[in-house]
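Changelog note: in this version the structure field was regenerated for every chain. One regenerated record is shown below for reference.
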Amino acid sequence: MNLYCIPYAGCSARVYDSWQQHLPDHVTVVPLELPGRGSRCTEEPIDELAALLEDLYRQLDTGTPYALFGHSYGALIAFELARLLRSEGARRPSALLVSASRAPRLPAADADSHRLSDAELVERLAALGGTPKELLENEELMEIYLPVIRADYRILGAYGTGIPGTVDCPITAFYGDADDEADLPSVEAWADYTNGPFRVERIPGDHFFLHSAERELVAAVEAACTQEGAVVTPTAAPVTFGQLSVIRDLELSAPDEQSDGNLTAVYALPAGTTAAEAEAAWSALVERHEALRTVYDRSPAEPLQIVHPFRPVHLDRVELPDGTAEAAEVLAADMAEREIRVESEHSWRAVIATHAGEPRHLVCVLHHLAVDAAACALLEKEFRTLVAGGSLGPGPVPQPVQLALAQRAQERQRRRTVEYWLKAWEGFVEEDRQAGDTSLRVRAALYSEAAMAAAVRISERLGTSVQSVVLGASALALFRLKGRERATFALVAGNRTDSRWDTLVSSMNQLAPMTVAADRGTCPEAVLRAVYQSGLERLLHGSYSLDELREQLTAAGHPNPDPLLFGCYFNFLGEIAEPPEPWSPLLDGIEWAATAWQASPGFNLRAATGSGLHLSLTASRDYLPPDLVGLYLATVEAVLAGLADGAPNTLDEIDYAPLRRVDQYPETAE
């Protein structure tokens, strides 16, 4: 772990240079130098807290376990740095170690020292005893030093009192038994500033026991880190094939598109649920599922998942303007706009949404590296069980590390799967393998109970799945509107056919592309049967190492060897569709959503079954003109209805006329 150390006012971080020799190898001392001193003596000192915190924030590597230590003034800066890390959603420090410091709500002894004249300030420093006499007596050096100490004192002078907030990590406070500046009662008040454990440790000496009792202090720091579980060895393992696909997809995305991997979830809390109960339920899920306490090292050629030990979580409260689910969903969407930095913070953020002070919803943003649709459904089910007072099944649940190791142990299966895709690659339509389409996306959706009933009847008659029937109808509608006879769809494979992974929280989705072909004289039922058989075969081969496949495609000389570069997606979300509100345009028309800029795919169709069929399409202007997006969805519905009661002999005989109102694309959506 890294032990970041912040010096006291006016001091250089070199005061910590000797600490490393007293600590074990698994603790790395990282002195944080402030501008204007030490190795940064040529820089202007900073006299404003926010700017100083931003400077220190850039020096941190939160991708590995770490603790923060600060002495005197440095302790307040370390505390504020921990608060900044929390507000940024970064991984919290394993421990906050504050030394010779009064709690933030108590006025600092040096709060007005920046107002002193140079002579008075020198006299004050001499009285404190922390500044070498040789420095105080050297006028030339003091001309350099006084602006530095005065800048620190300005920050102290502007620092407010009261309780500005808390941190989630444990706090250990060290005090000198002869320290008149920060005595025991003023140090014990730090207990109000953490939601975790708090300890006080006595060190012999005055305010500058950092010097006089260095060995005792360093030993106490090491012990405090160990007691709080800060000195740990996280579990590092290869990523799963699903995680690898998400990581490579992130690498294709622009910096401002990294938040596209965020998924939202809003769980309504039963009446009477306290914030503590909701927090305890979510904390139990974080303990149960390692994916919720994992960070990812993407720098090696083979990325790693790094699982950290469980620590109870604290969730912020956010007051909503009203207690409706819509208000909570707006909050979730706002939270999802900010990137989750998976290299340094766990793959989720969550708050308890309140109205009039009463907890109403748990609002979550989860990164696709940690969850897929099936995992999201599992988390919701388990959370609702826990807040209702129930308990989860006994025994351990499967974890992503276990899946990753199992996937790599099956060498023969891995080789066969890659060989399968090498052969399949020859049949893909190049038009649907294009990437780089950044034209504006148009988004629309519909809900149809009639289409759901029709898809069920067709699947029962043909002995196929409802999912494949919807995919087949979607392909036929696309052929109709685009004047095509072949298209390659990148199916999103859930890869949960093995019951061992039923309760795994992770991302298992991967692309399983397939080509659908049919000319105008083809029998529609033949197309649907072929889609079912081909789709099933593709999905059974949906788990593979994307890097291995890319390597083999490159070696085979394929001109477009990236397994992610597909422009036409079909994603079956499962049986999660629920009836919309009676006034919703989803029922008898088209619901348009705000447009967005994004990378490929240029055609992304999502289907969910349940009480009805819910179809949502995001299509680029270059792939499908805006006015055709709503018409396309209505055409899928019409195809299903036309095939439900005995299929026509050819595609030309299908009645493609929409069964619902199809409004023109509203320019206001832009």
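Spot check on this record: The CA atoms of residues 627 and 665 lie 5 Å apart. The two ends are 48 Å apart (CA to CA).
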